[in-house]
Design a protein that fits this description.
homodimer; 464 residues; alpha+beta; Aminopeptidase; Alpha-Beta Plaits; 2 domains; 9-stranded mixed sheet; 4-stranded antiparallel sheet; 15 helices; 18 strands; globular; peptidase activity (chains A, B); Peptidase_M20_dimer (chains A, B)
Chain lengths: 464, 464
């Protein structure tokens, strides 16, 4: 916490944030209008445009900013040297694909302000994940600069454009630029509020392992009348492989999958118990009622501290309108695992591939496409910045901030630790109903507004 | 067999067929250029065009022809009253969808004559199934008419346009027009040669039952980090349901599935044995080596006389390039069964639905879309027309014709029997490598040419 923390300057910054909200929203709208879908090669130019937009924004805010090419989409880096602890802020400018497009009520890349379930919101792909979130930090910097004439302390901003597609360029880039990127603490804004008006600081994150499996059989699609019965159907092979990944208790069956996975320590279990999380409300919001994970685990454990295996995509044969009696030549599945501390992604990938290979009948082959592998992470909550940020957030929101888990995978936190030996603090303002990765993604204006104010408060306490 | 069978007239007809082959091919090309994909509503107009084209063709040949509307695609009927046994010829003018389009080497609806594996062939969707085949009959009629001034005997032609999409209008139409359609024998041209130069007359056909299954879970696609572990994934439910349809011996597990299914009678088994069918060659042509059906059955049994269960289509979640960590809101499968004599399609549909319903966890629902249900059929081989046709075919081809089974489902044969009490004789000239229902469908010019000549010979012996 800086010694020269000036409550009056902070008050002026907060007032300016309130006054300038319309302009802030307009800037967010410009960024949201760029369809920077990183997984789709057709949007390569859009990713470059989003990076460029952010570089200019950073320069306007007084950062020494540059676009940094990679074999994939570029990084954007801005430096603002100054006194005190070196803080790095991370966000990502790329977004998820938008399909099924027909389920969107408005165009995903024409942002609109409308009435949402929690007051006004801005609707567009990336509104919450992660463009709206990263803009809360930039807008806090902007207000700070307008009030004090400068940015607070020693800041670096680091944006990537491949977060939604497994970040293939991230690790090599961080290794090549380790000295430039290494700071005393990283702030990551890609998570949500714990509850509607309760901010959270994430202290543990699940890892992620993705794998695409392609089972091939006949050399081409066949007529099921002519060949049905005698020709092996790769879709039949695939469903048997996938069905074998869980047992009747919802546990993953791969040998060694739970090696190193520990039960929740009693003190964390107690903290989580105190959060009065309501599984019925959480699941009810998406049309469900029954926690579907491992038998005997609480819903919070299922989403924060237990590993999972999920089918994310499945395709084979004829999928259009009507019917086609085809024996498909191939069947594909995208499968991913959420990992918890103790699990080794590469060992699990090897176990998955062995499971697939062992299940192949004659005439079938398997092809594998890896899509990212990141370990789970636990945060350094003994760093005083965690308590300072908790107090800053508590001052902005109705309820004290909570130390929580996060079921999502933010591999960057693990990379910061492994490659740069840098701890991370994850603070974000998304809400559960933001529909991230789904049609009609939105970000509540309240979250955007109070998010900007939150960063101003956090910076006042930990920067400079 | 007509008493006035005139070998000289037949010789003239055959010569004319040889001389006019180019014109015959041109007419086939015009029909193939119409993309009459019955399962796709976007091609409704094309189906109507194909029907219209055939009606005009029939009128040119001296039939009293008309388009007969149905709630789906129209029927085309032509009558030519005359002496002798009333013969009805059936074919279908609709074709399968063409996807995946990028696997076609030429446009599927721009027919081209090219060199194929068995000499020259015509390449287009529907070339073999069934436009090329039905045109063999019409071109035989044309030659007959040009030589003799009239068509032989008492002929009716009946074309439908929904064969590739479950024939929803067929049964009601046949019931409403039973008196008009009832003949003494039906000729159906929608099957293949038994071997490259060995014609076959099909004496048993499998039935077909299709069902689309939709499993729904959450009310929308979810983020697998936020909900993964706690939310039920319908793709996981679907693969378990589908994997449960076969046991380790390749048998279908639905209760009652094999009720009424009989082992092959020894005399049929002996006939089939004599055909010297080569499973290695049959499967090798499509990149396979091992018969994949029920343990302990021959490959011919697997494709002709044993029932099957196949996954024809599978789709859930994100299936595009790259990866998306989504928990899908729904998962869909198209499943079909090839049925043999003794099996009741409706009982099997009920058993399938019960299997699905019993496997549904909390929060998941199942929706079913039926796609056709036809029983298997055995033909009336004691009708002397079968032996007459066998001799006629043997005169045209290098080898005597064989009585064979057919793994495909030609529901019309069952409907002719059930609704009109009319027996069918199935004769066709397709080859195993015709790629029907697959990209790059073709029909060998040899099959087209000798197919026309074959019908001239068959008509000489059984019509008039």
């Amino acid at each position: 916490m800086p010694d020269d923390f000036d409550p009056e300057a902070l008050a002026d910054v907060l007032t300016l944030i309130d006054d300038n909200l319309e302009d802030s929203l307009e800037r967010l709208g410009s960024l949201l209008a760029i369809p920077s879908i990183s997984t789709d090669p057709a949007h390569e130019g859009d990713c470059a445009r989003a990076a460029d937009w952010l570089m200019h924004e950073l320069r306007e805010l007084g950062f020494q900013a540059s676009i940094r090419p990679t074999p994939g989409h570029p990084m954007v880096i801005g430096h603002h040297p100054g006194p005190g602890r070196h803080i790095l802020f991370y966000g990502h400018y790329d977004v998820q694909p938008v399909d099924p497009l027909d389920l969107w009520s408005t165009d995903p890349f024409t942002p609109v302000i409308e009435d949402g379930p929690n007051g006004r919101c801005i609707r567009a792909r990336g509104a919450s994940d992660d463009k709206g979130q990263l803009m809360t930090f930039l807008e806090a910097c902007r207000a700070w600069r307008e009030v004090t004439g400068s940015l607070p302390g020693n800041l670096t901003v680091f944006f990537e454009g491949e977060e939604e597609s497994g970040s293939p360029s991230l690790v090599p880039f961080m290794k090549d630029n380790a000295d430039e990127l290494r700071a005393d603490l990283a702030l990551i804004c890609d998570t949500g509020l714990f509850a509607d008006h309760t901010p959270g600081i994430v202290t543990q994150l699940r890892g992620l392992l993705g794998e695409e499996i392609v089972i091939r059989g006949p050399s081409k699609d066949l007529h099921s009348g002519m060949y049905g019965g005698a020709a092996m159907n790769p879709a039949r092979v695939l469903v048997r492989i996938l069905a074998g990944l869980h047992d009747d208790q919802g546990r993953v069956t791969l040998p060694g999958f739970y090696d190193g996975v520990e039960d929740l320590p009693p003190e964390i279990a107690a903290q989580w118990e105190a959060l009065s999380f309501d599984p019925a409300r959480f699941l009810g919001g998406v049309g469900l009622s029954t926690p579907a994970g491992e038998a005997g685990r609480s819903a919070l454990e299922m989403i924060w501290s237990r590993p999972t295996c999920e089918i994310n995509g499945l395709v084979s044969g004829y999928t259009g309108a009507g019917f086609k009696t085809v024996l498909p030549a191939e069947a594909r599945a995208k499968v991913s695992f959420r990992l918890v501390p103790g699990q080794d992604p590469q060992a699990i990938r090897a176990a998955l591939r062995a499971h697939v290979e062992a299940a192949l009948p004659p005439d079938c082959t398997a092809e594998f496409h890896p899509h990212g592998a990141s370990r789970a992470a636990r945060m350094a909550t003994d760093d005083p910045a965690f308590e300072a940020a908790r107090q800053a957030l508590g001052a902005e929101w109705d309820r004290p901030a909570a130390f929580v888990g996060c079921g999502g995978s933010i591999p960057i936190a693990g990379h910061f630790k492994t490659i740069l030996d840098m701890d991370s603090m994850l603070i974000g303002f998304g809400r559960d109903d933001d529909q991230i990765h789904s049609p009609n993604e939105k970000y509540d204006l309240e979250c955007f507004h109070k998010g900007i104010r939150s960063w101003a408060r956090v910076l006042a306490r930990i920067a400079g």
